[in-house]
Protein 1
Amino acid sequence: MNSSYCYHLTPKIAKISKAQSFVGYAPTNDIYQGMEEAIEWYIESIGN
């Protein structure tokens, strides 16, 4: 890999305004609640 090549990474934030206006989508959970539910589901799933 060429050491002079630099990766430029920029953080991405989901913008849901198009989805809201186009299909009427609106999230029901915030990111923290969603992550908590996903982690709980994952722990329960691997336990079986």
Protein 2
Amino acid sequence: MLGALAGAVVVLAPAAHVAAGTGVMSQTIAAPSDATDYRFGFAVAVSSDGTIALIGAPGSNPPTAEAGKAYVFTRQNGGPWTEQAELTPSPSTANDFFGGAVALSRDGRTAIVGASGTYISAATPGSAFIFTQNAGVWTQRAHLTGDTSGDFFGFSVALDWGGSTAAVGAPSDNTDEGAAYLFADPAGTWTQQAKLTDPGRTPMPPTPGDNFGFSLGLGLTSSGQEVLIGADQGGTAGNSAVGQGFADTYLHSAGVWGPTPLQQLTASDAAPGDAFGNSVAITGNGHQAVIGAEGKNGFAGAAYTFGAPKNMFAQKQELTGSDSSSGDLFGYNVTLDDNADIAEISAPFADGFNGNVYRFAGKIGGWSQVLEQSGAGTPGDYGIGLALNHNGSVELVGADGEDTSASDGAVYAYEFS
């Protein structure tokens, strides 16, 4: 109900003015009754107009016989969010981790859901599934796969504004060097356009543990489509971060992606263990980006903003939370609105896994923190899922551990004026 703040607290940052408006939690979207222990809210996406939400519930912690699920919620005329559809994959196997990554097209009528599998099911190839909506009915349109088992294909996913180009990350490809795949739907059939493999962090060659494809973002520039691919250098077999991390941009021009990066982005103060590139976000015009570095300063975390008025990015600012401390993982998730006026950055392990989300406003290079949102006071991983609509007026925050008894999860919906 509008104005109800049970389950989350909105706190003004010290000495900050709320230039981006005041946020009100409009609704707690509870896990559906058939999503018990499914970690509902692990990943979230929202349409441009803020009326369609896609929420992942991948399960698999503890291991289950289920593949995972994703749910579509809609709202009309500022009313409550209601469930429209439950999405499940075909084919599927236990521990697919379906719902571990999600993305929506700008109009919310095309969805992609990743099913990367887990270390328990590493022998099973990862997948990503395309769904489309017509007259309120969602239908699976494509089943996308990579080259090899155990590559965690589907760990990250992205869609362009029109919903006709998809990017899928496979960060464990080739002994955790990583890769990213591009697919297109020019005539109703999704086909692979390219596989972009780990270029290595300059001047080093591709290295096991780079985890290229750990995060993804898609934009459209005057020169063609652009994909931003993060590589957190988190090491092999799921070990903690051991490298500085990097991110690369690739252009699609004259019908071809890459095959070499247009540019490699790194932090100006990069240090081993930063995990720069664990999360990325890019505006639809490809001119602004935010990149998370959750490992910075003992996993207190940081995020970096970049601007690219002529398709070549330059670092503009380093961001941290006003009260960040070791182990918070600030930068775990990053997102920004279409004009790069608003950014949201999460720290889901803050305050004993309760979690925080920080809102920044301004312009690239001059952002300041204007708001801090906090979890319910129980270990809920508040901020593990994060999404903004086109102008930052609608925000979704996933908390996959938020429940009084188990990891059912919840999603908090906010409105900003």
Protein 3
Amino acid sequence: MQGSAPTRAAPTGIPSLEDASAFIRRLRRWSFGILLPFFTEKGVAESGAFVEEFDLTQRPLPAAAIHTRVQARMVYVFAHAANMLNEPRYAEIAHSGFEKTARTLWNRREGGWIHAASAHGDVLDVRCDAYDQAFPLLALAHLRRLGMTDADIWIERSLEALDRRLVDARHGGYFEEAPREPSRHLLRRQNPHMHLLEAFLALEEAGWTGNARERATHIVDLFSALAERDGAIGEYFSEDWSTPPPDKDTRQPGHQFEWAWLLDNYARGKGGSSALANRLASFAWRNGIERDPAHPHALFEEVAPDGKLITPSKLLWPQTEAVRYYARRARLGDREAEARANRLAETILSSFVMSGGPLWHNQIDRNGKPLARSVPSRVLYHIVACAADATIAQGGTT
């Protein structure tokens, strides 16, 4: 299936109030009116696990494994949508999805969420990966808001395993995985910490009475110091959080926008705003956005610390994170932010969404040619979060 032709020219000036959010509204209608109904009908396999990947003709791809990261993201998607839209079917899918995830991907012996299993529960990869641990916690925060009776038990169980197996008491933050093998010298990643921050903030918003704010503060303090040192937030670090080898010292514009949204969210919980969030978003926009009107107006995958382009292809998810951030800024009266969000929403619809259908091109080259041969369900997490936040920012209607 072919996507429609990419938009070729950026608008001049700031659009009128009448059309400033037209494409954001269309993106929301696509997300809630086409995308979620498709995944409701086609997104759960006979095993009860979520389908992790589709081909470009909307057929589920066979998979030897299911993964904590993907399954928990899908639970979050349906729980968040159920809370927002008051849709009982979405709540059912979220609850049953979590039950399946817990049966197949919780490590009953060591605690924590394993990396992968077969759909029928055979353990395939027992690693306790820090990135994976974030998403069951995020899902549980939204399940708690849905009234899941044992949500707090699972939250506390998950956090106990996280602390026992992955906390780095010497350098701060979390180790990459457990068990740790001395022969494997893994670089530290920002990504697990960013998503754990997201989970801790969601737990706080869901009314969990534990130490979510304290946990969030630990991550914010650590990465605020790193961002001050490095100018933005890098993807990788050495074990002691020093800069990594030069070939790994990169910046992803999409992650700068994710961090910016989270830092603003954290600051709002303290009754303030985040200057660092604005600096990260400014770095991403200044260095990461396509300026050539002959190419789709979208964020690149990766740039160097000085802003030089490294990877010119464009993924869908960074565009959603930028829309999400700018939609919130627009709610505060920032007209330029609204224009940016709307322009990126237009690019999503014209260059990534497949002719108005329920699926998308996950990656395009700089010219707009689709590169990905399949559609990963895990990206639904980014799309729904974006659409939900845009809905809130624009008055709460889908």
Protein 4
Amino acid sequence: MRYNIYVVDDDSFMATINSAEDAVKEASRCSHCNEPNCIGGCPLGVPIPAILSLVATGKFLEAALILRERIPLASVTGRLCPSYRFCEKNCSLGRKERPISFCSIERFLGDLSLNSLIKQRGNSRGSVLVVGGGPAGITTAHDLFVEGYNVDVWERRPSIGGWLRKVPPFRLPTEILNWEIERLVLSGMVFEINKEMGNMDPILASNHYEKIALTIGEPPCRPSQKPGVEETLEAALKGIAPNCRSVVINEGTDGAIDLARQLRQLKPDLGITINAEIVGNEEDAKLAESEGISIRKPSKLLMKLGALTIGGDCPRLPPPFQLQTSIEGLLMVNEHLTTSKDHVYAAGGAVGFYKSITEAMASGHDLAQCLMFRSRSSANDFAPQL
């Protein structure tokens, strides 16, 4: 298996990890500076120098287990994390040469440890219901499970993963995601699919769960005649391409780039333009351009005869709960991530528009910490962050 190492300022790959020897060689480049800015640059707080030291000495499994304490989906983040914006941007080596490609080492360690199971540090510390099985929800549930909480994860869709299920297989192979979820299940974590949250008051009144954590993802767009990126991508992943000569995608997110590249594979002669500033993975945007996809700065004048316009700003549907929301339809929370209802917390896309899996998982870590340190008897004192 090949693990590509990206270089931000170069359109080509400068190196690849094809073996354990390559991983050792890349990890050995770490200068172990006195102030490792890479840790501060990582939203997940991964102890990168310590992991690189272990990899450099061939202690791969030990390194992988430390990595997975902070990243329960290491094989996934190793493929999707825009590390050039985080640890690699802050790597001291990057001032004079190529920064260390920790993302590739992360992928190597993640794939190597897909059979490793999670060990709990305690038991019977309380019961929490996590609603939403995307990156933030999985991370929240993982952290609570490790500390001995009884955690159930409800997912309204027929599979766990949230928006990760909408990432095309050329970026995230389905079997890798399935394997990561299976690892969590085999460790003892409980996931229930096709499980929709209705009225939460009876759930709280039953005392079966002490707290509810809402990680339900970004609020969906209101129904519109203009197709959205998400629905068009879902169709494209099923092999359905728009019946037109060209499309204009008015978003520059990861999903928009994925859509453009998936449409290129489905319909090679389709004209595809991304009419937006790129806020997603810049490396994937470069790959899209190399595949003949046009990327332009946003312009309202960009119109093409017969072009289908996809995406753009949309009014959002508020979540189906009696909770205080912002004008964008996001759940409002205070500094403890509590919502306007006692014992109900929220994080991830439900409270903010995150640009990467890394930031969504970091939100899940924060939520788990808040849940662990806020007892049921604590007053809610809800005062939302504006």
